[in-house]
Amino acid sequence: MTDFQAPPPPPSNGFVPPQPMPEQQAEPVDTSVPPVAPAPVEEEHPEETVDNGNNAAINKFVAQKEMLKERFNALPSGKRNIIVAAGIFVVGLLMGAILFGGSSDEPVVQAPRGLQGVVLNPDIKENEQLKRCGQVDPSSPCVLYIMNSYTYDKMAKDFFETAVAVTRRKDLVIQMDNVRYAQMRIPPGYFAQIKIPAYK
């Protein structure tokens, strides 16, 4: 590098003497190794990086496929036939399971029929086929279900008054047809099964 010196201050009368020019020293140049220009930097594109990753995965898959194919071809023909038959058998089983659904080991539980939570009436005989009130003619005998909506037990006879109001039968007639049932307890949330005689 060249050293520069500051010029001396000018004299007071305004005259500036000429200054000698400093000599420039030449820098030694090394000619043994030619200078190398830097390589241009290429911008990376994320799309190309993803494609390279996909290409590598595809190439690996193809290589594995070719290796398996070579191993398969190296087997004796008898073993190759057994492998092919086993593959066809497995595919057939899978297709059969998909198409026909297979069988279920769990037994099918049918939904219970009829009303749940009923305190059965012993005064209704087994051979009596009484339908629910409302499904038959108003003068026909039927069975009336009344739920105990209280939080404590009630006796079945406590529901006879409601049965009289709903069916318009006389209280005495309902009591006569439900003699044993009148003394049974109906828990909260359960239904009383009251036998309603035919209207006379």
Brief write-up:
By secondary structure, the protein is of the alpha+beta class. It has helices at about 45-75, 75-100, 160-165, 170-175; strands at about 120, 140-145, 155, 185, 190-195. The strands form 2 sheets. A 3-stranded mixed beta sheet has the order 1-5-2, with helices on one face. A two-stranded antiparallel ribbon has the order 3-4.
Describe the model.
- With 200 residues, the chain is an alpha+beta fold.
- A three-stranded mixed beta sheet has the order 1-5-2, covered by helices on one side. The protein has a two-stranded antiparallel ribbon with strand order 3-4.
- The chain starts with 45 loop residues before the first helix and ends with a strand.
- About 2% of the residues have low confidence.
List keywords for this structure.
single chain, 200 residues, alpha+beta, three-stranded mixed beta sheet, two-stranded antiparallel sheet, 4 helices, 34% helix, elongated
Please render the helix and strand layout as text.
Elements: H1 46-74, H2 77-100, E1 118-119, E2 142-147, E3 154-155, H3 160-167, H4 171-177, E4 185-186, E5 191-196
Report the oligomer.
Answer: single chain
What's the average pLDDT? 78
Strand percentage: 5-15%
Give the distance, in angstroms, between the N- and C-terminal Cα atoms: 137 Å
Question: Sheet bearing the most strands, described?
Answer: 3 strands, mixed
- Helicity level: 25-40%
Shape: elongated
Q: Please tally the helical runs, counting DSSP H or I stretches of 4 or more residues.
A: 4
SSE class: alpha+beta
Radius of gyration: 54 Å
Given as residue ranges, the uncertain stretches (5+ residues, pLDDT < 50) are: 46-50
Order of strands across the biggest sheet?
1-5-2
* H/E series: HHEEEHHEE
Q: Tally the beta strands.
A: 5
